[in-house]
Amino acid sequence: MHTIDQHPSRINADMELRGTLVRNAEVRNKVLDGDGHTVPVLCIEFTTDSSSHMPVRAEQVYKPNEHKLAETHAKALRRGGAVTITAPLVGLKLVATNASAITPEAAEPTETPDQFRQGALL
Hints:
Blueprint: E1 14-21, E2 26-31, E3 38-48, E4 55-61, H1 67-75, E5 82-88, H2 113-121
Antiparallel strand pairs: 1-3, 1-5, 2-3, 3-4
């Protein structure tokens, strides 16, 4: 099984992707709590410049009082424009919408609390 390297020196690593916007950027509001406090979020969709032309959706969260700044940035990001995003690997979400197979892995046996207590008594 292949997983993302979780070595402590790489936990805070950033990823950079370049591509072409497939639609104009937009600003949405994200609700923070039950009291209705929101923050502006700049949302873009683009395809990477790699040979796979992978579709990517990226969001940048702004401070609550930065709605005008987010709108200004959105106006500069138009369909067909080049874009580069930088994002931490932590919090990255990958969705495989066209998986060709999803196969369960054999679970490794784990000790139950009873087995653990029995081992401790020996």
